[in-house]
Design brief:
With 292 residues, the chain is α+β, with helices and mostly antiparallel strands. The protein has a domain at 187-291: Fusion Protein Consisting Of Minor Coat Protein, Glycine Rich Linker, Tola, And A His Tag, Chain: A, Domain 2 (2-Layer Sandwich). 43% of the residues lie in helices and 10% in strands. The protein contains four helices and five strands. Strands 1, 2, 3, 4 and 5 form a five-stranded antiparallel sheet that branches. Strand 4 and strand 5 form a beta hairpin. Mean pLDDT is 75; it is low at 1-5 and 181-193.
């Protein structure tokens, strides 16, 4: 049994010693880390500090203040005389609690403004209406005046154009009359076939007036040999009392312009008083170049 104990004790000693050594070694290292640096650290040297009073001021002397004057005692108030008559003791008036005004909730919706209706003034409305009508009539008058001026300008331009055309046509007819051969003796339908000098002169006056209105249209060309014989019967005052075609040209347009020349020449010159006949009948030969 002693041998077994020794073995156990010997096993205990085998690990306790190393443990103690390890713990002691660690403690030594910790001590060295904490304490040893402070041992070798140089302590700071402080210079000697001296305290010196530069100025020695004497404390001011405290003045002895005069003792305060004694406060006079107030005179005793006279006691109020109490009347022997009994005084009725009334209950104290309790003030009424203040009325708390009820706070109305504020709406978050935008308040609607009340639009005041305008009071209609009949007199003012009537005056405005009259002014409006007056302005409207003035504008219409100005517009009508402008329109009339424009129409007058257009009419003047048209009249000037027509005048130029008429003048050109007249010049053309005059040129045709001048270039046309002299008309031969007229064909007399009644009485003697020979004309007197007065009748010949009257015939020239009649044919001259009709020749001023004899013109063919420019949109159509006619053969130079075409002709038409138109008979007219003239009263003493120059009125044509009878007229007809003795021979047509064969072209309706040509014949229409023959009648147009006679119609535009009315009335013809009156028969001279020296001629005794009350009527004279002529047969006029219409050619493109003139009247014979």
């Amino acid at each position: 049994m002693s041998e077994q104990y020794r073995i156990t004790f010997g096993g205990y000693n085998s690990w306790v010693l190393p443990l103690n050594l390890a713990v002691g070694f660690h403690l030594l290292i910790a001590f060295s880390v904490v304490v040893v640096p402070d041992l070798f650290k140089p302590s700071p040297k402080y210079e000697d500090i001296y305290t010196v009073d530069l100025v020695n001021l004497a404390e001011p002397a405290v003045e002895q203040s005069a003792p305060p004057a004694p406060v006079p005692e107030p005179a005793p108030l006279p006691e109020p005389e109490v009347s022997e008559e009994a005084v009725a003791i009334t209950d104290p008036i309790t003030p009424a609690p203040p009325q708390v005004e009820e706070v109305k909730p504020v709406s978050l919706k935008p308040s609607k403004r009340k639009i005041k209706k305008k009071v209609k003034d009949p007199q003012r409305d009537r005056q405005k209406e009259l002014e409006r009508i007056k302005r409207q009539r003035l504008a219409e008058a100005v517009q009508a005046e402008q329109l009339a001026a424009e129409q007058a300008r257009i009419a003047a331009e048209e009249a000037e154009r027509q005048r130029k055309l008429a003048q050109a046509e007249l010049n053309r007819i005059r040129n045709q009359v001048r270039s046309a051969p002299a008309p031969g003796p007229p064909v007399r339908r009644s009485g003697s076939s020979n004309l007197s000098a007065l009748e010949t002169q009257y015939y020239l006056n009649v044919t001259g007036k009709i020749a001023n209105h004899w013109a063919l249209p420019e949109f159509k060309r006619f053969d130079d040999s075409i002709q038409a014989i138109y008979v007219i019967k003239i009263s003493r005052n120059g009125t044509i009392i009878d007229e007809f075609f003795e021979r047509r040209s064969g072209d309706p347009t040509y014949d229409q312009f023959v009648k147009k020349a006679i119609r535009e020449s009315k009335p013809l010159p009156p028969i001279p008083p020296a001629i005794k006949s009350d009527t004279i009948e002529f047969g006029l030969v219409f050619k493109p170049g003139g009247i014979q």
